[in-house]
Amino acid sequence: MVCVLSSACSLVFVQEPTDAMLTKKAPLTCTSSNALPITDFAVGAALGSAVFGATYAAVESFNDECSPGQCYRPWGPALIAAFLTVSPSWMSSAIGFSDTHRCREAMRARQATQVKP
């Protein structure tokens, strides 16, 4: 629930593999699930869409009162507002996907080197 209400869940909760884990000197306790990066991506998309719609509607409402030739195009402000809203969540998502991928690679490498009876 905390992740849905905030952005950057992956930055806070995903544990990347440490150098000791990658060199097999420590047990793998990193995060291998993509659940948090996917949540960051989805929350960012939902918030970005809502902000885009609200900004677009606000500019259109302002245009109802403008003189001909003095109106604003709502696309620019709406896109900028959506981009600024989406950026933290999607950056966190990208970092989370990278960290979980490195963890899964380390797990596969460790499994490949284990001696099988």
Q: What would the keywords be for this entry?
A:
single chain; 117 residues; mainly alpha
Structure overview:
The protein has 117 residues and is mostly helical. It has a domain at 53-61 and 73-93. 69% of the residues lie in helices and 0% in strands. The chain has helices at residues 2-5, 9-13, 19-22, 35-63, 75-113. The longest helix has 39 residues, at 75-113. The mean pLDDT is 86.
Work out the strand percent: under 5%
Number of helices in the DSSP assignment: 5
- DSSP E strands, number: 0
Q: Rg from C-alpha positions?
A: 22 Å
Question: What is the string of SSEs from the N terminus onward?
Answer: HHHHH
How would you summarize what this structure contains?
With 117 residues, the chain is mainly α. The chain has helices spanning 2-5, 9-13, 19-22, 35-63, 75-113.
Task: Please outline the helices and strands.
Elements: H1 2-5, H2 9-13, H3 19-22, H4 35-63, H5 75-113
Helix pairs in contact: 4-5
